Amino acid sequence: MDTLFSALASTLADGWGVFLVMVSGSAEQLVLKFTPFALFLEMPLYVLTWLGLAHYLWRQHTEAPAEVPYYPRVSCICNAYAEGRDVQYSVRSLLEQIYPGHIELILVLDGAVHNRVTYQAITQLVGGFRNSRSRSVRFIPKPQRGGRVSATNTGLLYATGEIVMALDADTSFDNDMVAMAVRPFVDPNVVGATGPLRVRNAGRTLATRLQAVEYMLAIYLGKVGLAEWNLINNLPGAYMIYRKSIVDHVGGWNTGTGEDLDLTLRVKQYIRRYPGLRMVFAPGAVAHTEVPESFAGFFKQRLRWDGDLSYIYFRKHWHAFSPMIGWRNFLGVVWYGLLFQVFLPILQVCFFAYYLLFEPAAFFVGLMLLVYCFYGLLCLFQFLLFIALLSERPRQDLPFLAILPLMPVFMVCARVWSAIATFHEWFNRAHQDSPMGPWWVIRQGGPK
């Protein structure tokens, strides 16, 4: 045992020396070490995001705020399944909205026969509610489970609002969410939107804290920047907002997994015929969602998410990789969707595996330290940008600075797992075993 610890300590010491040599080397050598996985694929996307953020802030200071009174009827389709009493967080937050227009809350409980606790929680909360001129509630218990898409489309059948929001029952909202979310739609060219998605259980465990930082940087900061160039790649399933007419045009949500990305891509294909149409990000429309509280739960969730991503791109929407959807959307889908989200994790795994297998252990340790420093500085810069320029809760968010030293490790692990999820989908058709719907529904939808 002492020999093992001595060998490990010696390798770490030698790795530190290799790291110092790498850092003190020429700029050209340092650049070449990051070429495969950072400079060509990541950094241009980050720079584009930062430029978009600067453009957003410039617009906020130079453009006069629109004072046009615009209060369209809004249909909030809230999908519930097995949330239990936690569903009341979502329902209550929607009933307490301060929006002056009409909100039509459509609660769809999928598989009501087997989800009695959720059924009772909903009926208890809305039982005493009385419809008014500005608020109405419709509860639709579906006896048999049909899956998330089935529930959302059921709600769409009853929706009468000009704006439709598809929301998860484990997501709650700031009381001005609806008011902030509809503001961009005063522009008739805006057909879709989403807002900041925060982690409601961020303080529970180390896993939730890391995911909370990820949501701040990737979903909040990232989407604000990319939205300025009309390059939002996906409206997330827990919180998507569309003009109802556009959802009707494309036929609603499609059976299968990854229905949020699927709908986004179909809307983009519609937009190519009308280049003036846009999907935007509404920074003030804040939602709060639950995330897995254990790392096992996190990796299980990401196995499904990243596998569904590959399914959508390679099995269902391979034609999206064509200029026929418009050059802007084509470049966005190829660069962000295909290269950054799918192939970059695979490149990184191959990169790490090569140096682990064919280079001395000390060199691998030194290289990993260099990777850690690169992502550590990147996370710190992004986090400070977020706190200083975007966060509507800076005092609440600032303590997460303490978790940043772990973020590079978290990011690399998530990337490696993303590559595994991609291969799992390619070779095992993992999307067919999704918990988002019964197997007989999932396997009947989409390409085989």
Summarize the structure.
This protein has 448 residues and is of the alpha/beta class. It is built from 16 helices and ten strands. The chain has a seven-stranded mixed sheet, with helices on both faces.
Give the helix/strand class: alpha/beta
Q: Which band does the percent of strand residues land in?
A: 5-15%
Query: SSE string, helix = H, strand = E?
Result: HHHEHEHEHEEHEEHEHHEEHHHHHH
Rounded mean pLDDT is 85
What is the count of β-strands? Answer: 10
Count the DSSP helices: 16
Computed Rg: 23 Å
Percent range for helical residues? 55-70%
Could you explain how this protein is built, in words?
With 448 residues, this protein is of the alpha/beta class. The protein has one domain (11-70, 187-448). It has helices at residues 2-24, 27-39, 43-62, 87-95, 116-126, 148-158, 177-182, 206-227, 244-250, 259-271, 295-316, 327-358, 361-389, 394-397, 407-428, 439-442; strands at residues 74-80, 103-110, 135-142, 163-168, 171-173, 190-194, 197-199, 239-243, 278-281, 287-289. It has a seven-stranded mixed β-sheet with strand order 3-2-1-4-8-6-9, with helices on both faces. A three-stranded mixed β-sheet has the order 5-10-7. The longest helix has 32 residues, at 327-358. The mean pLDDT is 85.
Secondary structure layout plus pairing:
Elements: H1 2-24, H2 27-39, H3 43-62, E1 74-80, H4 87-95, E2 103-110, H5 116-126, E3 135-142, H6 148-158, E4 163-168, E5 171-173, H7 177-182, E6 190-194, E7 197-199, H8 206-227, E8 239-243, H9 244-250, H10 259-271, E9 278-281, E10 287-289, H11 295-316, H12 327-358, H13 361-389, H14 394-397, H15 407-428, H16 439-442
Parallel strand pairs: 1-2, 1-4, 2-3, 6-9, 7-10
Antiparallel strand pairs: 4-8, 5-10, 6-8
Helix pairs in contact: 1-13, 3-8, 4-5, 8-13, 9-10, 11-12, 11-15, 12-15, 13-15
